[in-house]
Structure formats: C-alpha cells, structure tokens
Write a structure and sequence with these properties.
The chain is mainly β and 445 residues long. Helix content is 9%, strand content 39%. It has helices at residues 2-7, 28-37, 51-55, 83-99, and strands spanning 16-18, 44-46, 63-67, 73-78, 127-131, 136-141, 146-152, 158-165, 175-176, 185-191, 194-199, 204-209, 214-219, 243-250, 253-258, 263-268, 272-277, 287-288, 297-303, 306-311, 316-321, 327-332, 344-345, 356-360, 363-368, 373-378, 383-388, 398-399, 410-414, 417-422, 427-432, 437-440, 442-444. The protein is globular and about 70 Å long.
Length: 445
C-alpha cells in the first residue's frame, strides 16, 4: 500500500478498514497505537461490527477493494497483494477518467492525529535478551530502529545504556554501530560474541560482532519474498518474508520464525538458507515438519531438547522435535478462531495472540500479548497459569495479581528475574519471581 500511495500520490486514496479478529483489536485506542507504530499515513476505520466487511462481501484478511471515481467496485482481491499487480489497473482507470474530466486530484482532507512526540527513551520495544554472568540486557527498540545494550545493577532496578546499535533511522545499512541501519528489528539471539537480529521490515538477518562493533547482513536481500515453496539458496541471494525471531541451535545453525510465510527456516552458516518446517499454509496442523502448518510464528525458544514456538495467530504454543525425524505438535491452542483468556490444562486453555516465549527449569513463560498478561506453561502437564496481569491494559507496578501491562511482546529470564518488553507502554518491566513484585526498569541514557 505504501508503494501504491507513493506511485499515485495525486490520484489514489487509500482507506484502511480494520475488521478485528481478536477481541483486543476491536478497541480504537489499540488500533491507534498500531497505526502509529507502523507509521500509517492514511485514514483507518474501526469496523468493529463488521458492517463494511459485510457490505463489500469480504471473506478474508487482507482483502483489497478497488473503487473507481464513479464509486463502482471494479476489482476485489483477497490475500497478500503486491503493488505491481494493481498498478496497470490503476493506471488504466486514471487515464480513462482523466480523459473524461472526471478525475478529481484534490487531496483528501481528513483529521489525521499527529504522532505523539516521543517522551520515553524506548518506542514500541518488542524483544529482550538477558545475558547470564554479564548482567546485561539487549533490547530491540523496534520503533526507534535500533538495538540497545544495557548494563543492569544487582537488582535490575536501573540499567545504563552502554551501547546504542543503529543510527535510529529506518534503513538497510551495514557498518559501525553509528552508521548501521535497521528497520523494525525484533528477535535477538546470542552466540558467544555475536548477536543475531531478525530485522523484520528489512526482511533480513543481521549479525552484530560485539567485539569489533560492526553490523553485517548475513541473509536476505532487503526485498520481501513471494511464494511459499522455494528451494534452499545462498543466504544473501534469498528474499525473506518478515523474520520475527531467531534461535541458535549450535554454532553456524540458526532457526528463524518466518512470520510472513508461516514457517520455520534454517540458516546454515554462510552457505544455505531455506524452509525447515511448515508447508506455508496458515493453519494449525501437526505432524512431519514438511506437512505441518504454523500461524505467524512470532517467537522461538530452545528448551528441554525441543524448539517451542509462540504461534501467534492461532493463539497457540507449538513444539518441534529436533531429532532425526522432526515432528510438530501443539501444546496449547485449537486453531485460528479459538482464543480467549482461560487458564487450566491442555485443550481447556485459551490464549490471545501470544508473541513472546522463554524457558527456565522446565517451565515456559508466555507473553500473552492481547490479554496483557504473562503466563506460565508446564510442557509436561499442559497446565497454564496467569503469572502477571489482571487482563486489563495499563501501566501499574506492584504485586503480580494487581499489575498491568499493555500488549507485551517479548520475555526473557535471568535466574529469578523475568524481563518483559512491555511494548505499548514503551518500557521494560521486571518481574521478580522471588518477591512476586513487578517494577519498571529505569533505563539511563
């Protein structure tokens, strides 16, 4: 849509209609936050009651409806749309209506809410990575297009920024910490002195050498991939599709949550990248890795000799065995249209768009994003319990049961401290598992 908007700046009006799938997505303020986060420059309608959805006979997300200057629907296309597929039709419409004198190039006037001036150090942080022994925390400061390296005090009450990685301007540029550019980075993974980054909007995997303080692109071209069944290829020649999280299996072997194609990919050194698991169909399907279906996988954690996956759109937690015959299974979740906020065991449990996952001592910690909660999952019993949050969006420290978060997207754990990327509160929160108290990390520039 951005490409179309730039190509036809004087002729095309784009109106986004948000018909919510999840309950949390129905609230206008949450939609406003998402629009700001993604720097949307066009009007957004909250179609909470699906009235416009029904009027235009929409059946799938996303759907593009093309309307001519006379108000007639001339094309409807469901599924992911690429700009070059629509450009010829729009050009033909412009020529025809301009020739008839019926093309109005007057800019659309509407009250666009100004983006808030940043008052916080962070802007929509999405992922955190705690470093044992060094008492450090890496933060994907997604809205500011950078990575922060933070030194923590003994109780993680305060943190001092010791390195800012990235210029803060969206782009795809390698080089020094100051010169390098990211675009909405998310997942982080560490192997010795190398930090790996899922650079989501650049559709790339980046490598940060913490010793030389250099950023290098190791996979992706910067272009968004099309299609699902692509043969493995050289990493820098392969188009990727919204990588969201990374896990290091061993030196030279990364597993990547490729959210845009609903798959798990593998990057093998400098030689090869390709699909490791997932057919590409957006579905909750278990079984052999090539036949399994995922639903916008958004985080990964290696724990208990398995790869666990936060499968966001299915409100599910999946697992992938890493033996000679890898299999995909489901611990929690029933499918794309089953969600809620229900603790319990196994099939009775409901989550709502979980996007963060970490593990320690046989327990998984889940950022249950749209429920504004942190929950625990025992993979052996299937039991899920709320740990932090009362289910309402907010920004309140204190006892876990009374504390409030606002769409947390990332979690990581360091002994008794659980670090939370509290995305819409533009902050990092710290849950002390020993005291049962949540506090906000005071980050000093």
């Amino acid at each position: 849509m951005r490409e179309l908007q730039e190509t036809f700046a004087d002729e095309l009006v784009i109106i986004s209609v948000h018909a919510a799938k999840f309950t949390t997505e129905k609230h206008t303020e949450n939609i406003r936050q998402a629009a700001k986060r993604h720097h949307m420059a066009n009007p957004v309608v909250n179609d909470a009651e699906f009235k416009m959805w029904s009027h235009y006979a929409v059946r799938a997300w996303p759907t593009v409806v093309l309307i001519d200057p006379a108000g007639h629907v001339i094309a409807t296309q469901a599924g992911e749309v690429h700009a070059d597929e629509l450009i010829p039709t729009i050009e033909e419409m412009i020529a025809r209506f301009a020739a008839d004198g019926k093309l109005d190039r007057t800019p659309l006037a509407y009250d666009r809410p100004e983006e808030d001036a940043p008052t916080e150090l962070l802007r929509y942080p999405s992922k955190v990575l705690a470093v044992p022994l060094e008492n450090k925390l890496f933060i994907a400061d997604t809205g500011n297009h950078r990575i922060l390296e933070v030194l923590l005090d003994a109780n993680a009450a305060t943190g001092q920024i010791i390195n800012t990685i990235g210029s803060g301007t969206a782009g795809l540029q390698d080089g020094s910490y100051q010169a390098a550019c990211f675009d909405s980075p998310h997942g982080l993974a560490l192997w010795e002195d190398t930090l790996y980054v899922a650079d989501t909007e650049n559709h790339a995997i980046r490598k940060i050498d913490l010793q030389t303080q250099r950023v290098t692109t190791i996979a992706g071209t910067g272009n968004k991939a099309r299609g699902l069944s692509v043969p493995a290829a050289a990493p820098l020649a392969m188009n990727l599709r919204s990588p969201w999280a990374i896990s290091v299996v061993q030196e030279g072997l990364l597993l990547i949550a490729m959210a845009g194609s609903h798959q798990i990919w593998a990057l093998i050194g400098d030689d090869q990248i390709g699909v490791f698991a997932g057919s590409g169909a957006e579905a909750l399907v278990d079984g052999p890795r090539a036949e399994a279906g995922f639903n916008q996988p958004s985080d990964l954690v290696l724990h208990m000799n398995h790869l666990f996956v936060a499968d966001a759109e299915a409100s599910a937690i999946r697992l992938l065995t890493l033996d000679e015959d890898p299999q995909v299974g489901t611990l929690i979740g029933q499918g794309l249209f089953e969600w809620g906020d229900v603790d319990g065991i196994g099939d009775a449990v409901r989550l709502q768009h979980p996007t963060g996952l970490c593990g320690q001592a046989g327990l998984l910690y889940i950022a249950d994003s749209f429920n504004h909660k942190i929950k625990t999952l025992d993979p052996r019993t299937g039991e899920v319990l709320t740990l932090v949050g009362d289910g309402d969006a907010g920004n309140i420290d204190g006892k876990f049961s009374n504390a409030r978060l606002y769409e947390p997207e990332g979690v990581d754990i360091l002994e008794d401290l659980l670090f939370i990327a509290d995305t819409n509160n533009h902050s990092v929160r710290v849950a002390n598992l020993e005291t049962g108290i949540l506090h906000t990390l005071d980050i000093q520039a």
